[in-house]
Amino acid sequence: MNISGLGNFVLISNSFDVSSWVECTYNWKCDNTGNCEDVGLNNGTHHSEATCEAVCQDSTISIAELDLEYSIYPNPFSNYVTLELDNKIKEYQLIDGFGRVIFRKRVQNSKEYIFKSNLSKGIYVLQLITNNQAVYQKLIIE
User: Fold this and answer.
1) What is the DSSP string of 5-30?
2) Tens digit of pLDDT for each residue in 24-51?
3) What is the per-residue DSSP string for 74-109?
4) In the chain, where does the domain assigned CATH 2.60.40.3080 lie?
5) Residue 95 CA: distances (Å) to CA of 1, 3, 58, 125, 139
6) How far apart are CA 47 and CA 50, in angstroms?
7) What is the domain class of 63-141 according to CATH?
8) Residue-wise over 19-38: b if at least 16 C-beta within 10 A, else e?
9) Facing residues of 36 across strands?
């Protein structure tokens, strides 16, 4: 089955056993010229042509642009966490375990803080966003 925007899926079973729900296939990869090609079942690195194209277009970014410097401490934290960010990072957002964006903030200082306040204990994903990419870090609230 091919679902536009989601890639190719092969139905394994109708069971509620998570290990047998669906198998994602990797049919697409970037070629030497930055274009996407369908290389067949599990021979590629991307699920869909759209995902492949997004990555191939980003492959022209120089290594210097991808080199980010940042520190996140303490992690895990119980009161607040400190983010030390270089000037390439423009904003960040906190994502919960369900994939919901808890908050998003533009970087105003090289040192930012996230306070626990109304956040529940658990594992979150901190997304650091530049003009050309996003970096993800696990963040644990005790």
Assistant:
1) TTEEEEE--SSS-GGGSEEE---EEE
2) 566 677 766 667 777 777 666 666 666 6
3) SSSBSSEEEEEE-TT--EEEEE-TTS-EEEEEE--S
4) 63-141
5) 30, 26, 23, 5, 10
6) 9
7) mainly beta
8) eeeeeebbbbbbeeeeebee
9) 30
